[in-house]
Amino acid sequence: MIVAMQEKATEEQIDFVIEVMVEAGVGVHRTTGATQTILAGVGPTATIDLTKFENLPGVLHVHRISSPYKLAGRGFRPEGTVIEFANGVKLGGEQVVVMAGPCSIENEAQIFETAKRVKAAGAAFLRGGAYKPRSSPYSFQGMGIPGLKLMYDAARANGLLVVSEVMEIAQIEPMLGLVDCFQVGARNMQNFNLLRELGIARKPVLLKRGIAATIEELLLSSEYIMSGGNYDVILCERGIRTYETATRNTMDISAIPVVKKFSHLPIVGDPSHGTGHREMVAPMARAAVAAGADGILVEVHPNADKATSDAAQTLYPDQFEKLMADLRVIARAVGRTM
């Protein structure tokens, strides 16, 4: 259930409504926007008489939510969620935010060169995998924390934020001070124990859509993180598995406006994993921004053809620079900035 408070509702009135909701047996999640406070009640609300709350002081209106995702739904934050990072970067607002870097951190020279080039082109985040979930157990699995420390140093030296994938609960604590945003990969989208722990971690989480997940399943997975009190969740469309074999995955551009309709959470597009082919990355990145994506996640490597992992879908720095120039034009055309 959603309880929307009046614009001039006092803190005493809000606290009283929360108290009544708790007494009714529901958990309360509060969000305060620029003009209004919204209280989301999660729990056995089906038998609750909503008129009991409609008549409380300071309440504007009350309604029962039919969708299974209560906190991720648009009704929880009608104005949309904007996530602000330490250096002033805001994701989910007017600006289109770009996250760029190699699939895997390989060595110091590689990650520092990449950081320098993507920053110069206009990226806000340095992305890179310290832990790599690979389909084959014999493939490169990443450098772990030593690699992540290299990426953190490279990012900070160039004024960038860090986003990197966490694969299991035990990795959260050692990664906390080295990332600005945790990434949950497609394979872990329904690792509910991991999602619950990230809900406690109080650090932004980029949640990738699973390879065969519906949009509702993606939003329900985000609900696991938000139910722990962490509302800074970024969704990511990275392509789904279909019968098509011409691309690595089928990048579902339509998922971007659909998510915008049903959820307040920001969403980014990942055209690198979405297509699996270098020549297709730029067109799909442009399409994602045109469709309303709040950001782009793209793989860039100074020697892309010799990248340890995902070489075929990785851009060279000069290709990334050209893409950024194109995205600025498209962003302006749809009323956004870069």
Describe the overall structure:
With 338 residues, the chain is of the alpha/beta class. It is built from 11 helices and 14 strands. It has helices at 11-23, 51-54, 108-121, 145-157, 172-175, 192-201, 215-227, 255-262, 271-275, 278-290, 317-333, and strands at 2-5, 27-32, 37-42, 59-63, 83-84, 90-91, 97-101, 125-127, 161-165, 181-184, 205-208, 233-237, 267-269, 295-299. The strands form 3 sheets. Strands 7-8-9-10-11-12-13-14 form an 8-stranded parallel barrel, surrounded by 5 helices. A 4-stranded antiparallel sheet has the order 2-3-1-4. The protein has a two-stranded antiparallel ribbon with strand order 5-6. Helix 3 runs parallel beside helix 4 (145-157), helix 3 (108-121) runs parallel beside helix 11 (317-333) and helix 10 (278-290) packs parallel to helix 11 (317-333). The mean pLDDT is 94.
Report the order of strands and helices: EHEEHEEEEHEHEHEHEHEHEHHEH
Strand order, largest beta sheet? 7-8-9-10-11-12-13-14
User: Strand content of the residues, in percent?
Assistant: 15-25%
Main pleated sheet: 8 strands, parallel, barrel
Radius of gyration: 21 Å
Structural class: alpha/beta
* DSSP strand count: 14
Number of helices: 11
Low-confidence stretches: none
**Helix proportion range:** 25-40%
Distance, first to last CA: 37 Å
Mean pLDDT over the full residue set = 94
Name some characteristics of this structure.
338 residues, 34% helix, eight-stranded parallel β-barrel, alpha/beta, four-stranded antiparallel beta sheet
